[in-house]
Amino acid sequence: MHSAPTPSDVRVAYREGLAPRERAVLWSWTGFTTTFGAVRAITYTIRRGGGPFRDVSVGGMHLHHYLWGIGLLAGVGAVAVRGTDETRRHPLVGLAYGTGIALIASQGFDAPPAGPLASPPCRRPRSSYFPGASTPERALGRRRATLVPPSGGRGFFHVRIP
Q1: In this prediction, what percent of the chain has a pLDDT beyond 90?
Q2: Separation CA 90–CA 33 (nearest Å)
Q3: N-term to C-term CA, the chain
């Protein structure tokens, strides 16, 4: 009968038995699995109304967790494009990749039939996607782009440019 591996056995197997790419996959899988499970549990407690967790909003606009995932993937992409081999192989890069994918994938479980941007905190029109952003207006020759909510509260937002 075999006994369970000791922490020392696991360290040796990790360092000597896994190539750098296999370690990156392990960290990505760990980040994805842990984050997906945690986000689903947190979302459940928020919807149930219990626990210490609340929605995150800025200026009255709800920030969905897929936005944080997009940010993480942008960071991983920057490391992939500009980082050294040593930097790209760092375990945190794989962990951030798996975490970012989990944040994006988990959002699909929360999206109502009307789409992820149609939740009640997002229903009023806004100029540009991010409040206070003036760059889109400059790019449009000072014309204001307006984010218009879906008619009847169902469907996706669209941008109106006069």
Answers
A1: 35
A2: 19
A3: 75
* Strands 61-62 vs 57-58: parallel, antiparallel or unpaired: antiparallel
Rounded CA Rg of the chain: 21
Contacting residues for 51 by C-beta, under 8 A, at least 6 apart: 42, 45
For residues 35-53, one letter each, b for 16 or more C-beta atoms within 10 angstroms of the residue's C-beta and e for the rest, the string is bbeebeebbeeeeeeeeee
The domain locations on the chain are 19-110, 114-162
CA distances from 130 to 86, 108, 134 (A): 35, 21, 9
pTM greater than 0.85 (yes/no):
no
CA-wise closest residue to 91 among 76, 107, 104: 76
What is the length of the chain? 162
Closest to 159 in 3D by CA, of 129, 118, 122: 129
